[in-house]
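Regression test attached.
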Amino acid sequence: MLNFKINSDEIDKIGSFSKEEKNFRLKNLDYFNDIGFPNKKNEDWKFSDLKAIVSENFSKLDIQFSKSKKQKVDFIKDFEHNYIVIVNGELTISDFKYEEKSNIILKSFSNDNYSNKKESNPLINLNHALSNKGFFLEVKENYKFKKILVIYYLFTEDLDENILNSKNKIKIGKNSELHLLDYLVNDSKKNFFNNVHEDIILENSAVLKNIYLQNNKSSGYFHKYSRNKLFTGSNYSYFIFPAGLKFNKLDLEFDLEGERSECNLQSASFLDNNEHQEIKTRVNHFVPNCKSHQKVKNVLNAESKGVYQGKIFVKDVAQKTDAYQLSKAILLSERSEFDSKPELEIYADDVRCSHGSTSGNLDKDSIYYLMTRGLSQKESTKLLVNGFLNEIADSIKSNSIRNFIKNKLETQLLNEYKKH
Amino acid sequence: MLEIKNLKASINNKDILKGFSLKILPGEVHAIMGPNGSGKSTLANVLSGKEGYKISGDLIYQGNRLDEISIDERAQKGIFLAFQYPTEIPGVNTSNFLRTSLNKVRKAQGKKELDALSFLKIVKEKSKELGMDEKMLSRQLNVGFSGGEKKKNEILQMKILDPNLIILDETDSGLDIDALKTVAEGVNSSRDSKKSFLVITHYQRLLNFIKPDFVHILSDGKIIKSGTKELAIELEKTGYKGIN
């Protein structure tokens, strides 16, 4: 097995840092090297043995990556939008043509928090040690974006067994509102690993609507850790539409820090071949009167594997919490696998918390019914799968954006069906 | 149109149909009546091609052996089953489903597929005839439909697909008298010299509205008596126990 221990020289190669920052990076590198890529012995990774996956698919992981040539962007034409373009994790161009620019700050990310600890997820330590790219976006107080902001995350063709570490931070000021589309477009042909650390802060009464869409399948191995803080009266809704990757783990943490804050997460995935995807959520209800809702839908074909680990934590003071979690999976193949681990940890006594998890085959009676109307077994399956997954996209309010997403998802599914 | 000879069907080693024979000519309406457990629904399922049954005997539809034809091809060749309990299918839009279904059947029959606009025209016209609320078409297929709405939706599909052999499985169950009249009217207006109907029912009530040419009594997997519509009236008086 390959040794993925990373030499401390690598940090010098990334750049020159203040003593404080360098120590922070070295310390984090030590934490990572202690464990390396997590394997299934680690409880949080028991369904996703990353060590095995990386060992099987990578002969090396290059930290250094020379800047790519200028990347052409296929801008979305379906609706008017502001944009930011991120190439291999690095902030390049942006345009806020529909907005009052004085209300927006956008710059390359620079870290100023050097408090370090051994994280339960070693990839966070790895990110702290090596991250050298990313952006910081702030929407100042009392400003509502007029049009959606699309962040194009492009991955270039010349990536080849690289590991990219980037950090992004988004802060939405008091009473402000942002609608965001994270749009991932991947041109890479060779394997690479993308390790992202994301911080999102919603100040009092801030609103964030965020859609995460992977445009296409690729040879990317993705890991994202996202920490989201919601203050009083803020509202975060998050839609996740992954394309299905060889490895894709979204480790999402939501801290409800202010009363009457709300967080709503929904995802729809179709996984195929030997794709592996894990969505892990942890929602922390720290204060009373907050709402959280997760709905995770997966369809699994061939030898794909899907995982949902969802934890809801309710602190003793967090009375009147309203928390709901639902995971639904359809397995189209006997070789596919879905693992679900719901967890409720509740210390308050006046709360409404529930969770549900179902997985199974497509309903035989539904297939029979559709076939008696002239649809083949395959067409019936397709219709039922689309219906199952479409429910998530259907709850996007904007017509033009919903249609854009649905068209993308339909194209992805069509490509899947063509293969089988 | 349809010839069934000595049909035997069993499921999980339980014999349900035990030598069922019937011949239906184009334009004829046959009613099958029988008590619970006599094999009525099994007959409908077997004709539609539902899996899980062990079958012997001859099933000939328009000169072809049905056992060699898959469920969807049977539909494409003009066999239509109106379900006793239409399946609720979440996430599938009723109108999209109807169009997909119609175009599949049209394509198989060598006809041109319909675009959204011409389809909408047809579906609006037909649903109006059945007194259906247009809004139903934009809802999820059968989800949250009332009993009457589900049955009307079956008849709507029948009208749109324009099949040759129509099997109505207990279409009257769960309908109030007004809905029953509408559904029966939907069937009657579709009758012509080329279409054949097999009306499966427990009660004679439906046959007051859909007048059959022949009535057959099914008991323990076999036809025990055949006659004209008077047989149904007699049955109503005597009950199933009174027949032979």
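Expected vs. actual: identical. The longest helix of chain B spans residues 94-108.
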